[in-house]
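=== RUN LOG ===
request id: a7f3
mode: sequence -> structure
chains: 1
length: 389
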Amino acid sequence: MQSLEALTREASALASNEMPVTLAMTSAESEVSRIMQICNACRYCEGFCAVFPAMTRRLEFGRADAHFLANLCHNCSACLHACQYAPPHEFMVNVPQAMAQVRLQTYTDYAWPAGLGALYKRNGVTLALALAGGLALFLILAMLFKGATLFTPLAGNFYAVFPHNMLALMFGVVFLFSTFALGVGVRRFWRNEDPGAMSGAAIGEAAHDVLSLRYLGGGHGTGCNTSDDAFSLARRRFHHLTFYGFMLCFAATCVATLYHYFFGLEAPYALTSLPVVLGTLGGVGLLAGPVGLLWLNLKRHPLAGDAAQRPMDRGFIALLLLTSASGLALMLLRDTPLMGVLLAIHLGIVMALFLTLPYGKFAHGIYRSAALLKWSVEKRKPSGLLVED
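=== RESULT ===
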C-alpha cells in the first residue's frame, strides 16, 4: 500500500501534468487535490459530511472535482479538529481552509458578467456601507427634487413619498438581474460536472438537507467546532434565523404585492395584517441571526476558513443587519415625521443588498444547494470505481 507521502506526490503530479493548459489548476485547486488524496487514503472522517463519501467515488481530483467538493463543504471544521494530519503536522491537512479558498474561486470563475467576478474579493464592509449610504442619499435627494418635505407626517403612506409603480420597477429590475446573474453562474457550475438526470427522490433529499442545514450539525450531529474545540449548534441556529427571517420578509413583500394588484388593498396595512406580521417576524429573525453570525465570525478559529473572505462575510452580514434594523425602525416610526427619511434609508440599503447578491456571500447558499443536489443525484448511481467481472 502506498504511503500518504507518495499519494501526496502523485496528487501534485496529476495536478500539474494531466490538466490541459487552458484549464490549469490554480494553487487553491491543487491544494484541495493534494489534501483529498491524503484524505482518500485515511478516510477517518468518512461519516462526517457529504464531502468524504463523495471523495471516495474519485481517485483523481481535477478542477471540476475541487469546485464540487468545495461547495459541498459547510465549513463545520469537524474534520480539522479530528484530523491527525492537521497543522502543525508536516502534511498540513486543513480541509475547511482549502475548501473555502476554492469556493471563492468558484464564485469568481462562474460569475456573470465575468468582469464583475472580481467584486467577490472586494465586497467588504466599506463597499457595502458606501453603496447603501450612496443609494439612500440619492433617494433623499430625489425626494427633495420633487418638492417633498423631509419631515412631514404622512400617516404611514409610503407611496406618498415614492409611487408604487416606481418602486416596483426599480426593485423588479434589480431583483431580476440578480436572479439571472446567479442563475447563469450556477448553470455554469452545474455543467462543469453534470451528474446526469435528476429524480424526485434526489431533489427531495437535497431540499431537506438545504432547509434543515443538515451538515452544520458537525461530524456527529452535535454542532460545529468552536475556537476552543467544543461543539455548538449556535452556527446552525443563527443560520436558520437568518435564512427564515429573510424568507419571511420576502413572503411579506409577496403578500403585499398580492394585496395591491389582486385585491386592490393598498398600503399602509394594519399592524395585525399578514404583510406586517410576516415582515415583523422576518425582521426580528434577520436581526438576531446576523448578530449571532457576526459574533461567531469574530471568534472563529484562525485555521477554520479563509481569512481573506472575512471582509466579504462581514459586508453581507452588515447589509442584512442594516436591512432588518432600518425595516423595523420604519415600521415602528411610520406614523411620525421621520417616516420619509427612514423610508429612503431603508430602500437604499435594500437596493444595495439586492445589487450585491450575485457578487457577495449570498452566493454561497445558492452554490451549496446546487452541490448538494449534485451529490444527491450522484450517490444514486453506480460508482465508476466498481470493478466488474
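=== NOTES ===
Strands lie at 224-225, 231-232.
The longest strand covers residues 224-225.
=== END ===
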